[in-house]
TrEMBL record, chain A:
This is Xanthine dehydrogenase family protein molybdopterin-binding subunit. Residues 794-804, 816-825 have a biased composition (Polar residues). SMART domains: Ald_Xan_dh_C. PANTHER family: ALDEHYDE OXIDASE 1-RELATED, XANTHINE DEHYDROGENASE. Gene3D superfamilies: Aldehyde oxidase/xanthine dehydrogenase, a/b hammerhead (3.90.1170.50), Aldehyde oxidase/xanthine dehydrogenase, molybdopterin binding domain (3.30.365.10). Residues 792-825 are annotated as: Disordered. Residues 25-140 form the Aldehyde oxidase/xanthine dehydrogenase a/b hammerhead domain. Keywords: Molybdenum, Oxidoreductase. The keyword Oxidoreductase applies.
TrEMBL record, chain B:
This is Xanthine dehydrogenase family protein subunit M. InterPro entries: CO_DH_flav_C, CO_DH_flav_C_dom_sf, Diverse_Substr_Oxidored, FAD-bd_PCMH, FAD-bd_PCMH-like_sf, FAD-bd_PCMH_sub1, FAD-bd_PCMH_sub2, Mopterin_DH_FAD-bd. Keywords: FAD, Flavoprotein, Oxidoreductase. The keyword Repeat does not apply. Pfam families: CO_deh_flav_C, FAD_binding_5. PANTHER family: XANTHINE DEHYDROGENASE SUBUNIT C-RELATED. Residues 1-177 form the FAD-binding PCMH-type domain.
Length: 825, 283
């Protein structure tokens, strides 16, 4: 028997990511770095108008431009009848417009493609794009959701007869999972011992702003057509390309090489991806598209954009009795792959950690002439968490209660798990008390409350606010039967394979598709433990449908909780096979074989074989049991039985300079319960990134449109993403109440920071300002908005906060009103 | 994004650069650090036929003492300005303001001359040049001329640099021993100023003897807050006196409105920030 060193446990080790060296140094393979010989390049000619009839397309000058191979409209390519897929018909009567590959007849948002240039170089394609003359007859833009639903509104898609995509309702009274909210509200209104609090919140439009712009290359020259794409969903893209263009799935290989971030923004099936496939097939040459940053901000799908009308009822002792949620969700001009379902995902999370006896959720999806919206980190859950955490603070104010105490009074106690919520989900585990207590200690909640008191008393120009968010989320999308009940167009399983190589090394194949999360490291750690092999001996392969033929990709904090478990199941099968061979070689009964630390031993003896030896024996196949094949390789498909429910307590200390309105996040503490932790370093990274994005929604980001429907802050100069310099050093911790729904006890962490942090910040902002008479500040809580709110509260009227001012673009700090487009002479 | 086609020349002397400018005609554009010009080209807001890169002209780079002035070559990078001992000692306000410009990467590439020639009213260094009575040396085919900062900034993105001319040097009168501060207010930490106040103050025995105050992004050009300066001189260096003087800051301004700040908010900010800048300067 080969001596194996004392096995070290990988699970829980803060390993630096093995992907980092290549990703951080840029020695990597992003899609744009892939240029098969003979590649042609495309540029999309996009509409500058939000809503207009196309009255003419003159391609002649562009066709003559140097290097141009062709200029095409949808009609030229025979793609007029082709519509991009939406995989989530949320209701049977959902209204779905055809989303064309290139607009024909009418453009429905500024940035929509109308024609495509194919040229020998990207520069020539870009030059020629300027030469296509498109005549438009402007139509009225449709920008405001409420106006869009009013009688007589201009219709985005007149053939649908309405701007309403769908209305989706959940009523706990009707579902039998709780009582009726209408009853709860009427009862509260009639009862002097109850209160009803109604608020309207706005989820502004956000831009996912991944680092690597989108890109796709189609090489039609092999037996299979190969599509490289900067996508989160290579498997879905493959199936959907088949559905959309009719290329047989077996003829299509999709590769997602290294992908530089997605945050949901790369979950789509894109017109440009379909264009490169169609053009490559037509021209018989590789065709490539790489978007510019401006195109990315303008035309890649946006996120959030909801109006939330929230009603909460409670007894005066603080016990909540009902929650009514009415949403308007902006779909933009078309439906994205899962766009209509994104707000609906929130339906299960508005009740959050609280024991609402009655709950209703009504969401109306609305079409406007803006860029479409779809998944963005958290997808439905940040919106829900924001609303409920904000309204809990409002209720606390109404009742004169400490907001944390009020939450505690209403949340599910740790001894009440498993707990079936008012919308029918069963939370398997959790301990809100534990996370909260740790967070409050770390934060020095009591000390900061004292400081806050003092600053108020002294009329300090800098006021302190304390923001709370005690959140939960549903991760691990998703049990397939639940998706079925929501009419989602796919299952929620994940696939994995493990190949034991002759030399004892291990290849792990996953259907999850990493785009920056660190799967290669975390999955290697899991497999190293499961099989008892060194971490370094495990290679994780993914993102290529030829290597990993089966999978449902990465989104919804599912990779570990679903994909990771599939790997564990595959490892179990490897071990079971190896055990048989070991028993055979060791001439022992299988029942007497024990497996630990990579070694199969005969109980009570020192006889044994390492898993590597067994792998070699299987490869040689000179001597193995008759009733099995000579292979340890195993596949597994895992369909989760339940979601997982990470939770946590997030606390923010906010300083507001009341003279300028400047908001400074002074301190941020979070204690997240994400179950067992595979790699604390990766977890910390995920939490930090998530926090930055959630805080960005609260304080920095908003996609603004002018009254013509033009995106006015479509560059990184004016779409103000925060950088590290805008954020404090976060104090992040984890506690663990293991999930009981999966063998690793893991819960998922990819979206937690984003989901939890936004309400913590806004609650903190308002907590600093409320005693000065401020009732609300819209997101993002910019210094200007805060200042105006303070002026308002003091009865001084000021100008409107302008949001629709044109910007000249990158590199220019200000705008010349005489020359708003910023042409530089 | 991809700029449209242009030619590129890299002269090795100012004379060569001026010839290249003449040869390039209307469409020629000077390239300094490229931190404003390259984005403008990539967005195709400008489509010059030829770029004349000043990066190969050693005489345009560097900082020297010239009598009662500190002379800074137009192509001196922000990073070098910030670290320079002469600047720190005699024109500290310039170092303070330059430190607030953008991020480390931009500060390594961007140049003092490029910033002033670009004349973005949201740019940080115009207010400093104006407040400190800098002189700008401009070279052309007919030789060299010197323009005071007060005449240099003409309008949005427009300066006294004429066609065929190059900004070669910026001379700052020494303000040795003055207190100074650059108070910048922005939307995100590494961005242009929504409003900023450049203040240099000389205090004698507790009284403000001289005051220089420049404003960033309160009009189409950097603006000298002469009302504030006059109100400060002779006053005690106390918070009340300074705040009262700061109320004059909006005189002669025409604050722009954009998504970050409408004019009324900018005016309010200017008052608050002027008080803070001057108080920090008198320290
Ligand atoms: C991300 C980012 C953030 C920024 N933040 C700030 C900020 O906070 N504050 C701030 O002030 N600026 C900021 N800037 C702008 C930056 O300061 C630029 O460097 C500066 O505006 C231009 O300097 P440059 O050397 O890069 O000039 P270039 O970009 O090369 O040139 C700018 C213009 O000036 C002309 N020009 C340059 N040199 C000369 C010369 N010697 N003679 C005649 N004409 C000349 C060019 O032809 C061009 O029109 C930022 C830029 C970026 C990219």
């Amino acid at each position: 028997m080969t001596a194996t060193a004392e096995p070290t446990v990988e699970f829980g080790k803060a390993r630096p990511r093995k992907e980092d060296a290549r990703l951080i140094t840029g020695r990597s393979r992003y899609t744009d770095a892939i240029t098969p010989s003979g590649t042609l390049h495309i540029a999309v000619v996009r509409s500058p108008l939000a809503h207009a009839t196309i009255t003419g397309v003159d391609k002649s000058e562009a066709e003559q431009a140097p290097g141009v191979v062709g200029v095409y409209t949808a009609a030229d390519l025979g793609l007029e009848g082709v519509g991009l897929p939406c995989a989530w018909p949320v209701t049977p009567d959902m209204k779905a417009p055809q989303r064309p590959v290139l607009a024909t007849g009418t453009v429905h948002f500024a940035g929509e493609g109308v024609a495509v240039i194919v040229a020998r170089s990207p520069a020539e394609a870009r030059d020629a794009a300027d030469l296509v003359e498109i005549d438009y007859e402007p139509l009225d833009p449709v920008l405001d959701m409420e106006a869009a639903l009013a009688d007589g509104a201009t219709l985005v898609h007149p053939d649908l007869g309405t701007n309403e995509n769908a209305t989706w309702v959940f009523d706990s009274g009707e579902a039998g999972t709780g009582t009726s909210v209408s009853d709860a509200i009427s009862a509260a209104e009639a009862d002097p011992d109850q209160v009803v609090v109604r608020r309207r919140f706005r989820q502004q439009r956000l831009i996912p702003a991944f680092m690597e712009p989108r890109s796709a290359v189609c090489d039609p020259t092999g037996e299979q057509i190969t599509l490289y794409a900067a996508t989160q969903v290579p498997h879905i893209l493959r199936t959907m390309t088949t559905v959309t263009l009719g290329v047989p799935e077996s003829k299509l290989r999709v590769i997602a090489p290294d992908v530089g971030g997605g945050f949901g923004g790369k979950i789509g099936v894109l017109p440009e991806e379909m264009l490169v496939v169609a053009l490559a097939q037509k021209l018989g040459k590789p065709v490539k598209w790489s978007e510019t940053r401006s195109e990315s901000l303008l035309a890649a799908h946006h996120g959030r954009d909801q109006i939330q009308d929230i009603t909460i009822t409670a007894k005066k002792d603080g016990t909540v009795t009902g929650l009514d949620v009415k949403l308007l969700a902006d779909m933009g001009a078309y439906l994205g792959l899962v766009g209509p379902g994104v707000p609906i995902l929130g339906a299960f999370m508005f009740n959050a950690i609280y024991k609402f006896p009655a709950y209703r959720f009504t969401c109306t999806n609305v079409f406007t002439t803006k860029t479409l919206t779809d998944a963005y980190r958290g997808a439905g859950r940040p919106e829900a968490t924001f609303a409920v955490e904000r309204i809990m603070d409002e209720l606390a104010v109404e009742l004169g209660r400490d907001p944390m105490e009020l939450r505690e009074q209403n949340w599910i106690k740790h001894e009440e798990f498993p707990f079936t919520t008012v919308c029918g989900l069963t939370y398997d585990s959790g301990n809100y008390e534990q996370a909260t207590q740790q967070a409050m200690e770390l934060f020095d909640y009591a000390g900061l409350r004292r400081e806050q008191e003092e600053r108020r008393r002294n009329n300090d120009p800098v006021q302190l606010g304390i923001g709370i968010s005690t959140f939960t989320e549903m991760c691990g999308l998703a049990p397939s039967r639940v998706l079925g009940s929501l009419s989602y167009g796919a299952g929620g399983w994940e696939a994995a394979s493990i190949r034991m190589l002759a030399t004892g090394k291990v290849e792990v194949i996953t259907g999850a598709s990493a785009h920056g999360q660190g799967h290669e490291t975390a999955f290697s750690q899991i497999v190293a433990d499961q099989l008892g092999v060194p971490f370094e001996d495990v290679e994780v392969l993914h993102g290529d449908t030829q290597i990993s033929p089966k999978g449902l990709d990465t989104y919804g904090s599912r990779s570990l909780v679903v994909g990771g478990i599939a790997i564990v199941k595959a490892a179990d099968k490897v071990i079971a096979k190896a055990k048989k061979i070991a028993a055979h070689l060791l001439e022992a009964s299988e029942d007497d074989i024990e497996f630990a630390g990579g070694n199969f031993t005969v109980r009570g003896t020192d006889k044994g074989r390492s898993i590597q030896e067994i792998a070699f024996a299987a490869f040689m196949a000179h001597d193995y049991p008759e009733d099995m094949e000579p292979s340890l390789d195993s596949d597994a498909v895992y369909d989760p039985e339940n979601f997982s429910f990470p939770h946590g307590t997030h606390l923010a200390a906010i300083e507001i300079d009341t003279e300028t309105g400047h908001v400074d996040l002074r301190k941020y503490v979070c204690v997240d319960d994400i179950g067992n932790v595979v790699n604390p370093l990766i977890v910390e990274g995920q939490v930090h990134g998530g926090l930055a994005q959630g805080i960005a929604q609260a304080l920095f980001e908003e996609a603004n449109y002018d009254d013509q429907g033009t995106l006015v802050n479509g560059t990184f100069v004016d779409y103000t993403l925060p950088s590290a310099a805008d954020l404090p050093s976060f104090d992040t911790r984890t506690v663990s109440t293991p999930a009981t729904s999966n063998p690793l006890g893991v819960k998922g962490v990819g979206e937690a920071g984003t989901i939890a942090s936004t309400p913590a910040i806004v609650n903190g902002v308002l907590d600093a300002l409320r005693h000065l008479g401020v009732r609300d500040v819209e997101m993002p809580c910019t210094s200007q908005r805060v200042w105006r709110a303070l002026q308002d509260a003091q009865g001084r009227s000021t100008q409107e906060t302008p949001v629709d001012t044109h910007s000249p673009g990158a590199g220019l700090g200000s705008i010349d009103p005489n020359n708003p487009q910023g042409e530089v002479q | 994004m991809i700029p449209s086609k242009f030619d590129y020349v890299k002269p090795s002397s100012v004379a060569e650069a001026i010839t290249a400018l003449r040869d390039g005609g209307d469409d020629a554009k000077i390239l300094a650090g490229g931190q404003s010009l390259i984005p403008v080209l990539r967005l195709r807001l400008a489509t010059p036929s030829v770029l004349i890169d000043l990066g190969g002209i050693p005489e345009l780079r560097g900082i020297r003492e010239d009598g009662d002035r500190i002379a800074i070559g137009a192509m001196t990078a922000y990073y070098d300005v910030i670290r320079d001992d002469l600047v720190k000692q005699h024109v500290r306000l310039l170092a303070q303001a330059t430190e607030t410009v953008a991020d480390g990467q931009v500060r390594h590439r961007g140049t003092l001359g490029g910033s002033l020639a670009h004349a973005d009213p949201a740019g940080d260094l115009g207010a400093v040049a104006l407040a400190l009575d800098a002189e700008l040396v401009i070279a052309g085919a007919d030789g060299t001329r010197t323009v005071p900062a007060s005449e240099f900034f003409v309008d949005y993105f427009t300066t006294a640099i004429g066609e065929g001319e190059i900004l070669t040097e910026i001379r700052f009168p020494k303000h040795t021993g003055w207190g100074s501060h650059y108070e910048k207010f922005n939307r995100t930490a590494q961005a242009w100023s929504m409003v900023a106040i450049a203040a240099a103050i000389r205090v004698e025995g507790g009284t403000i003897a001289e005051a220089r105050v420049g404003l960033t992004n309160m009009g189409t050009t950097p603006i000298r807050a002469t009302g504030v300066e006059q109100a400060l001189v002779g006053q005690p260096a106390t918070a009340d006196a300074v705040r009262a003087a700061a109320d004059h800051v909006t005189e002669g301004t025409s604050a722009p409105s954009d998504a970050d700040a409408a004019a009324d908010y900018r005016e309010h900010l200017a008052k608050v920030l002027t008080g803070r800048a001057v108080l920090a300067a008198v320290g």
